[in-house]
Amino acid sequence: MKISFDFDNTLTRHSVQEVATQLVHEGHEVWIVTSRYSEEGAPAFLKSSVKTSNEDVFMVAEDCGISLNHIQFTNMELKANFLEENNFSIHIDDDVSELFEIRNHANACIPINVDFLSWKEDCLNIING
What pLDDT, in 10s, does the model give residues 33-83? Predict the structure, then answer.
């Protein structure tokens, strides 16, 4: 299954990292889809700081076993389009507006709010059918 995690306030949580690592080990295609700017996509005034500021994303990806090729910076664009165009099944995030857009525009992708107590159970129930 193709599953994505937001980074800030989602995959920065140790409990979420544990789930992501578990899913990678189970053979799922796990991604980080973040609104942050990539080094290439950043406005000129931010370019010098973006590389350093994204080091935590790459470090957590490595710790969780997520391929560096499975990191998508949306450059402050909504995530729903990327998720739909790339056939994701689940996206886990803390941003209610992002989750709303995913629900309304990324038809096959199920949004899960990491701030709900049942987020992990909901995710695993979807995966295990």
Answer: 999 999 888 888 787 777 678 999 999 999 999 999 999 999 999 999 999
CATH number of the domain residue 124 falls in: 3.40.50.620
* Residue with token string 């107590």: 117
The dihedral through the CA atoms of 62, 67, 69, 72 has a sign that is negative
The predicted model gives 10-36 an average pLDDT of: 98
Q: For residue 91, what is the enclosing H or E element?
A: strand 90-93
As for how many domains the chain has, the answer is 1
Ramachandran sector of residue 6 (left: φ over 0; alpha: ψ -120 to 50; beta: rest) = beta
Query: Whole-prediction pTM value?
Result: 0.94
Q: How far apart are CA 115 and CA 23, in angstroms?
A: 19
CA atoms within 13 A on the CB side of 102: 27
β-strand partners of 5: 32, 92
